[in-house]
Amino acid sequence: MGISGRSDGGKRSALSALASYFGDALSTGDAVRQAHGHDESYHEAALPDAVLFARTRDDVVDAVRLCHEHRLPMIAYGTGTGLEGHVSAIHGGLSIDLSQMNQILRVSPEDMDCTIEAGVTRLQLNSLLRDTGLFFPIDPGVDASIGGMTATRASGTNAVRYGTMRENVIALTAVLADGRVIKTANRARKSAAGYDLTKLFVGSEGTLGIITDITLRLHGIPEAISSAICTFPTIAAAMETVITTIQMGIPVARVEFLDEVQVAACNRFSGLSLKEAPTLFFEFHGSQASVAEQAESVQMVALGAGGEDFDWATDPERRASLWRGRHDALYASKALRPGAVVWATDVCVPISRLGECLIKTKADIVASGLTAPIVGHVGDGNFHVTFVLDPERPDEFAIAKDVNSRMIERAIALEGTSTGEHGVGVGKIGYMNAEHGDAIDVMWQLKQALDPHHLLNPGKVLPPRDGFPQGVSYAE
Fold first, then answer.
1. Which of 20, 46, 158, 448 is 20 to 30 A from 471, comparing alpha carbons?
2. Are 385 and 422 spatial neighbours (Cβ–Cβ below 8 Å)?
3. Is residue 28 assigned to a domain?
């Protein structure tokens, strides 16, 4: 039977079996369910029927087997910091909270890699690594769990130099929908043996399996770090600087963009006095000599494009001062309208099309009359719009939806993507057909092969498609 005809008796049977097996580790309390039914996005919450606090991989395996037997949906939960409704239980079921699976299983400084459980957060990992001279560079801006970052193929400010989760996950272990456990690869830095299952699970958002541990590539802490900031008369001038910098092969670690609305918000929120104009923030990693050379090269590029007030620093306090505005951007945006709802969205395009996409999006925002600052990890063509909306004004949400749709359609037309790092969840699912076309059938075939009863995070990533199941059925 489909969603509309699912069996309440089957659900009760499933929950009873889980309660008998897990005892106090299972919760059906309203507050716990509410906390696990939404993330940091504006998308409407959808509560699970119960929450399991898994402590070990065996807990996950046992829970998955019981859910598979009773056809109960399963949703993996990390820290709840996603932005596209990834953890909402839109068909009910069991939320499997992995936050207590937070052990760092192995660190190999010689091989520059480590293996951790899915609930380890990036700050926890880097705190432990500090004395090894290594660090994990992926920084999505929040203290997300590594399991969640793997499942959503996260990236962030350092991606222009260090890549995304896709480039930094060497192997992982996942529990499939029927309780089988697979390891996708060994620790070798490259392999030509078989299908690349690691890459398949990175970004699958819990729809193909529940990731329980991950082997990560680590990087050496740079000898020196320098930061710089530069303002520009136009967005086009700033994007010209970004494109030229990348084309010249200058190995910048971060290139971040703030439009004048975002800069003004950061000035107000963080007590800064930055010029309220399109602004680029840079960070350079390397030796003392190389970071100075990189900064000088970028300064020449920026000034040639019309940049002004290029300011760079190497000491930690000055660097922190330069970056404070960027780090506070989301909170600064929300503070523009106390009590507002924040809707953060993103796209990514080939870097040569970045200026065009940004400028047209900015024009749409201005014409709409909405408050919507723009920030971006523009070194890899990714930018974000943060709509700051009055929850009592449904017309604002409708206008924002229209602006967002035009931005995404524009990005896809420019051979880009509907989401550079937020993931699909429920928020971007409506654009998957336009982006992938008939490849959606292949994705559905993979889903059908690994999860034939559609139990793993159902209703996420894949849009409805004829010939494939669209719901779940509880077994009596």
1. 20
2. no
3. yes
Q: Give the closest residue to 458 by CA, choosing from 85, 150, 145.
A: 85
What Cα–Cα distance (Å) separates residue 1 from each residue in 251, 263, 274, 336, 445? 55, 53, 59, 48, 20
**466: exposed, middle or buried (C-beta count within 10 Å: 0-12, 13-18, 19+)?**
exposed
Last residue of a domain, one of 383, 398, 413: 413
Cα(first)–Cα(last) distance of the chain, in Å?
11
Span 76-122, pLDDT tens digits = 999 999 999 999 999 999 999 999 999 999 999 999 999 999 999 99
My answer on whether 236 and 206 are in the same domain is: no
Q: Is residue 453 part of a domain?
A: no
Cα–Cα distance list, 225 to 201, 252, 322, 445, 456 (Å): 33, 10, 13, 46, 42
From CA 444, how far away is CA 286, in angstroms rounded? 44
Domain housing 375: 224-413
Classify residue 432: in a domain, yes or no.
no
DSSP of 404-463, one letter per residue? HHHHHHHHHHTT-BS-SSS--TTTSGGGHHHHHTTHHHHHHHHHHHH-TT--BSTTSSSP
Domain boundary (97, 114, 141) is at 97
Q: Going by C-beta distance under 8 Å and a sequence separation of 6 or more, which residues neighbour residue 237?
A: 278, 305, 306, 307
Q: Residue 59 has what DSSP assignment?
A: H
Task: Find the CATH number of the domain harbouring 189.
Answer: 3.30.465.10
Whether pTM > 0.85 for this model: the answer is: yes
Please check whether residue 364 is in contact with residue 255, taking contact to mean a CB–CB distance below 8 angstroms: no
- Better pLDDT: 323 or 335: 335
Residues 359, 273, single domain; the answer is yes
Assigned domain for 34 exists: yes
Range name among 99-113, 150-164, 462-476 with the lowest pLDDT average: 462-476
Number of domain units in the chain: 3
State whether the Cα torsion 44-45-48-49 is positive or negative. Answer: negative
Contact 218, 112 (CB under 8 A): yes
Cβ atoms 411, 347 nearer than 8 A: yes
**Separation CA 168–CA 185 (nearest Å):** 13
